[in-house]
Amino acid sequence: MELAAASPVIEFRDVAYRVGGTQVLSGLNLQVMKGETLVLLGRSGSGKTTSLKLVNRLLSPTSGEIRVKGVSNAESDVIRLRRGMGYVIQDVGLFPHFSVERNIGLVPKIEGWSEDRVRARVQELLQMVGLPADIASRYPHQLSGGQRQRVGVARALAADPEILLMDEPFGALDAITRDEVQREFLLLQQRLSKTVVFVTHDLREALRLGSRIALMEAGRLVTVLAPAEFLRSTDPLASAYVRAFGEGLGSAANRGTS
To answer: Where are the domains of the chain?
Structure first.
């Protein structure tokens, strides 16, 4: 996918984040361009989830600035900021006492959409994420893990946000279901061209889904490379990631065809 030659949709400018005496992020400078899937890759404690949460102000930086569509997010109304972003997490976070339809339609309803428009949008999204229409009346406990994750993606897309923030969204799924959901995500992204920031510790997933991979370690950005470049990188940490995943890694680099 070719990225638009334009200003970044999201920009980290010398961002740092500290909790007590612990420096979680240091000097993060990073741009996310329109229509790309930028993967934040790193081990636990590398700062990738913290970086994601800074975008929608679930956290605020100790210093530096995050700009969203050219405006400092610190100056944006936090409610409007978050409603303009879809947010998908590993444990989905569906409301257990809401039906699938009510879960997906929550933000559009808050935004004042009519009941008919919300219902039509729910059905459109269910089809988009590969779920049957009659699942709309079910509740989260009646769904499989893969179905709940698809509903989570549908809910994030409900109000048609330009930006998607995804934090290990498929990490809790079994290998076969994860493969299926990754395939659907790729098809969905080809169709919708959202600007996506995707957190994972899984190199195979990063290579398969990312337009670019931002490798993080100990709260710092190590390198940002396209998937094919990442495999050839001479950076010691990137090379260590490649070695750790062994001979089977090559097939994962063929994104969308494995």
So the answer is: 1-84+162-258, 97-161
Per residue in 13-42, pLDDT (tens digit) is 999 999 998 999 999 999 999 999 999 999
Distance in angstroms (rounded) separating the CA atoms of residues 83 and 210: 24
Instruction: Count other C-beta atoms under 10 Å from residue 119's C-beta.
Output: 15
Phi first, then psi, for residue 176 (nearest 5°) are: -70, -45
**1-84+162-258 belongs to CATH 3.40.50.300:** yes
Residue the block writes with tokens 């879809």: 86
Q: Where are the alpha helices (DSSP H) in 111-235?
A: 115-128, 145-157, 175-192, 203-209, 227-232
Read off the pLDDT of residues 204-250 as tens digits, 9 standing for 90 and up: 999 999 999 999 999 999 999 999 998 888 888 888 877 776 444 44
